[in-house]
Structures
1.
Amino acid sequence: MTNASSCFASRREFMDLLAAALASVATPAFAQASSLSSMKIATIGAGREGGALGTLFAKLGHPVLFSSRHPEELKDLVAAAGPTARAGTTADAVAFGEVIFLVVPYTAVEQIGQEFGSALAAKPLILDVSNPIPGRDGQDFVNRVAGEGGPGLVTAKLLKGARVVRAFNAINYKLLGTSAHRPGEPVGVPIAGDDPKAIDLASRLIREAGFEPVLVGDLAKGKYLVPGTPVAGEHTPAELRRIAATLG
């Protein structure tokens, strides 16, 4: 698999190029911040992280569809999320969401790509929140993902053509409700992506949710957006920028 970071002489060059591309974004779906609150969001996966993220955006007024293999078991989650939320299957989520939050065990990403890849490629943003975890997915699997460039590059490979941005991978779900819109300096959310329009949209949604996005680099840097790395946990945006500058 080609490492996307090799296309840039330095992280600064990547950031300069991305900033120029973002400045040229002018399509209504990305440029009108006022349209965010009506944007339909679907979660593929409704466990602790998917449930917390979907609830956060439902409370902001977004139409949200939580999905799982057993949507009938999500009644309590939907009730807690509020009147703009509902539950359905993965197919329902793909059909419903303008933005898809991918929050599943990482071993499931390949099957999701096989079943829904073409539909997901048509979305303006796939927010990849999934992580390969040794205790759940097995160390051999985690090693294989790392050998293929890490999550981010692997997600993009499995969801061919999708506009993938990794975000919210490195912050505990318990902090999402308490840290959103906190007084003073916001909590930083490290993100990684290749598509300027998708990065712009993800950044707008993250700010709307009460956090500050910090771009650490392209999808090759997505390997750092997992628990246990320097960017994991709760950091200020300035701290994340300092950490990101040291990443290889």
Note: Residues 7-24+37-244 form a domain with the Rossmann fold fold (CATH 3.40.50.720).
2.
Amino acid sequence: MTEQTARETAETLTHEAVAEYLREHPDFFLGQDELLRSLTLPHDSGRAISLVERQVHLFREQRDTLRRELVELVSIARHNDRLFEKSKRLLLHVIEADNLNDMAAAIDDSIRGDFGLDAASVIVFTDQPLAESPEGALQVVSPQEADERLGDLLAGDRAVCGQFRESERAFLFPDRDEPIASVALVPLRDNEVRGVFAIGSCQPGYFDENMGSLFLTYISDTLSRLLPSMMQRYCEPPLVMDVVAENS
């Protein structure tokens, strides 16, 4: 091949073609020591470095990136482990609760004390009167009122996170000196919506629509299983006189 032919052939080669050839022949540079020594690449410092130096530099960058990713994964795993332990303690207290007020109080204590958040609320939807008046974090409203006040927030079965409207926040967390700015809301349902479990933060951006809700769903699934039987036990039975009147 003449020098002119070699030059013409080189001119027809594209960068992509050379790169593809080297990918298909990764052992091309074996035995090409002189060629490797003659190849130089620009460096951030401004000086030219050899291909081997460039490879070493890339390997070090890759190692540092992998190390940072590993540290981040370990940190996430530890964070999730702490969340799991807190969630487990919360659910154990809930299971041990004797009534709806105790259940709501256990949730409120855990959310504010263990999780370090600002407020928790459990709202039960029923038209039946309870044997005890709701206290603390527990509210009891009719299904109709819940639908009027929360509307589309009850449509799904997963957590809904965000800042919500002021009227919705006031309904979920009434009578607060410091208003709640962002909310995580989870419907409690079996075949139908029985209530909601809400967590509030005074920080506007603490809960947003993109945050994960794995542990909220984990807690709400357990509450959804416990709520129907607890409501059945602690709702007032109809008076005997009323039953007789209905059957007359």
Note: The longest strand covers residues 193-201.
3.
Amino acid sequence: MVQLRECEKHGPFRGDKCPICGDEGKFLLNDWELTAISRMLTGILRHFPEKFGVRLDEHGWAPIYEIVKGIKRKHRRFRWLKIKHIIALVLTDDKGRYQLDMENKRVRATYGHSIKVDLSDLPTEGIPDVLYYPTTEEELEFIQEMGLRPGDRKWVHLSKTYKDAYIAGRHRVDDPLILEVDAKGAIEEGYQIYAAAKTVYIAQEIPPKFVKMAEKQEVELSPEELERIEEEKRRRERKLQREKERMERQRSKN
């Protein structure tokens, strides 16, 4: 069970003790609260801000006080939530999914959006020469003909390493195909690639001539990585089931 705590000297951390000084720190969120609020924050910043009464600007930024107010209004069990909880959650996110503007007390997600946001102000320096992309047998022919284009998300998401892409692909299928992307060549021809997180890069599109099958590598996943993948699959299945039930109820009313 992972807790979110705060060390007086070194700030927020996840775990039982500060990784720098070993202090137990002050309790902020338990494992269940951390997971629930993380999912709501992701949903607000990537998919459905209007459900929580939150307004994103054109670059995806949202005032943290609006997020807190929206969560408290929609879920009374979190009426104790404060701005400090959101800030601590963002600062300790191991995937680096968020960007925090402390001066203006606002936050945004840097990738994974299903709503339109302009992320062209993300960094473009230090992009690796080669990036990776997970796909399936069914999608491969389309990619070979059309290149990489956004699907249900608004940007193409590329991974820093073969393993990163494999893990991303495992959330969809058990044995993903991994493509190698000539990022250097694409950039030299004017296709912009942005650094969105520690291991995630995004682009509007990548033409097919810069994409090829990667040389297959054996990837070993830890028990923790496998459990995260399985939990994400279960969560997606539950979401699809709820959506199916909602549509059935709607049809029965009509």
Note: Residues 130-213 form a domain with the ADP-ribosylation fold fold (CATH 3.20.170.30).
